[in-house]
């Protein structure tokens, strides 16, 4: 933010995982927000590597 780079939004088909409980979330509808946080167990979800 504020560094001149455009923030990446969530895209359809991307998967995110909670590092604490293992919940996996798949994005079904593209996000149009400039900043979007997915939180589980009080922690941000991490992208699942393909």
Q: What does this entry show, briefly?
A:
This protein has strands spanning 15-17, 24-26, 39-40, 43-44, 46-47. It has 50 residues and is mostly beta strands. The radius of gyration is 12 Å and the shape is globular.
3D architecture notes:
This protein starts with 14 loop residues before the first strand and ends with a strand. The protein has a single domain (1-50), classed as SOR catalytic domain (Immunoglobulin-like, Sandwich). The strands form 2 sheets. The chain has a 3-stranded antiparallel beta sheet, with no helix packed on it. It is 0% helix and 24% strand. The relative contact order is 0.34. It is mostly beta strands and 50 residues long. A hairpin with a 6-residue loop joins strand 1 and strand 2. The protein has no helices and 5 strands.
